[in-house]
Design goal:
Length: 66
């Protein structure tokens, strides 16, 4: 599976995903519980290094393809 997400972007995606999931977990009311599900997407794409939306549009921010 070829990567299409660069290293800096991967780090930013993982951080954003973790922050969104933490907001959902530590929210005092259930109003923000849905934010955690949105945080799963950048977390997974950052960990895997592959973004399906990038594949559809032919975008590649990775300098090398593994």
């Amino acid at each position: 599976m070829k990567q299409n997400v660069g290293n800096i972007e991967r780090i930013l995606r993982v951080c954003a995903g973790v922050i969104l999931i933490a907001i959902a977990v530590f929210a005092t009311d259930l109003t923000y519980s849905w934010v955690g599900w949105i945080g799963v997407v950048p977390l997974l794409t950052g960990l895997l290094g592959r973004c399906p939306v990038y594949s559809i549009f032919g975008i590649n921010t990775c300098k090398y393809s593994a």
